[in-house]
Design a protein that fits this description.
One of its GO terms (molecular function) is ubiquitin protein ligase activity. It catalyses: S-ubiquitinyl-[E2 ubiquitin-conjugating enzyme]-L-cysteine + [acceptor protein]-L-lysine = [E2 ubiquitin-conjugating enzyme]-L-cysteine + N(6)-ubiquitinyl-[acceptor protein]-L-lysine. This protein is mainly α and about 300 residues long. It has helices spanning about 10-40, 40-60, 70-75, 90-120, 135-165, 170-175, 195-225, 225-235, 265-275, and strands at about 80, 180, 255, 260-265, 290. The chain contains nine helices and five strands; from the N terminus they run αααβαααβααββαβ.
């Protein structure tokens, strides 16, 4: 009897991931509606990221943690195994995988937001003491928001590896060593692997150009800004006009809706994907109608 896993097609794994994402979005949408009706819009705005994290964890708890296939895995006829042998992943591995998959993006976002507030507040003393140097503090204030781009680049590098080797789509599964095996041997076909390797090469080129463009943009801004005035302005607390109505913090990467209201880029993008309307005046808004204001802040 064959005791080693059958590597599924890359396309089957993509179908699995897409199907699970569809069901998780449906669960999140229904959870948001229930929470908003019970506690109101203001409470939902304050805890929307926590709700998303709990919603995704709930989906994995009733499937993966319970020893069952997810709906995407059932649809694609694949099963999780530990390494290359036909062994069901231990409950410890599954707990770690689910925690990393659902909580890591949330924890990174919260940590960066907390650190940004500390750095922006001139009344807060940082440790060690050399971090309180105005120039170092300014550099930290500029670097922390850009760390999200670093996380994005890491995820895209991992996607390139998936297209080349077709094994791990999620970083959480790579860390815990959880792979997929095809239920039927005929689902393991290498006919499309070359196409995905081409797609991986194109994704890698796009990633390289994105990094170069980001580096060029940062260098250009650094060469044109006034050191003295920018140091003061970046460390001053934001006035009410400078605050985002969604996160209630100083607005970053200002973006306007067709109705003229201003928000942070990430805040309004998340809101529009869920609600499809302006948070202030309720005018219908499509993601393509958002306008990023270059050099506005």
């Amino acid at each position: 009897m064959k005791s080693y896993r059958i590597s599924p097609e890359t396309a089957a794994l993509l179908r699995c991931v897409q199907k699970d994402e569809d069901y998780q979005r449906l669960l999140l949408s229904q959870t948001n509606q229930v929470y908003e009706k019970l506690f109101g819009l203001r409470k939902w705005l304050a805890f929307r990221k926590e709700i998303e994290c709990i919603s995704r964890l709930t989906y994995l708890a009733v499937t993966t943690l319970s020893g069952l296939q997810t709906l995407g895995e059932e649809y694609s006829d694949v099963v999780q195994v530990q390494g290359d042998r036909l062994i069901v992943p231990s409950i410890f591995r599954r707990i770690i995988m689910c925690f990393l998959h659902t909580s890591t993006p949330y924890l990174i976002d919260k940590t960066l937001s907390y650190l940004s507030k500390l750095v922006e507040d001139p009344n807060v003393r940082l440790k060690p003491d050399y971090l309180n140097n105005p120039e170092i503090r300014l550099n930290l204030n500029e670097f922390l928001p850009k760390f999200k781009h670093v996380v994005e680049y890491v995820n895209r590098c991992h996607l390139v590896l998936f297209y080349f080797f077709g094994t791990y789509y999620d970083l959480s599964k790579r860390v815990t060593g959880i792979k997929y095996t095809a239920i039927h041997s005929w689902l393991s076909s290498s006919s499309s692997k070359y196409l995905y390797k081409i797609l991986g090469s194109l994704t890698m080129l796009q990633l390289v150009f994105s990094i170069l463009f980001q580096y060029y943009s940062v260098s250009l801004i650094a060469n044109t800004e006034n050191d003295a005035s920018s140091s003061v302005m970046h460390l001053e607390p934001g006035t009410p006009k400078d605050r985002c109505s969604l996160c209630l913090s100083k607005r970053k990467d200002s973006t306007t809706t067709p109705c003229g209201h201003l928000f942070c880029w990430f805040c309004i993008c998340e809101w529009i994907q869920i609600k499809g309307e302006c948070p202030l005046c309720r005018q219908k808004v499509q993601p393509s109608e958002l306008v990023f204001l270059q050099n506005y802040d």
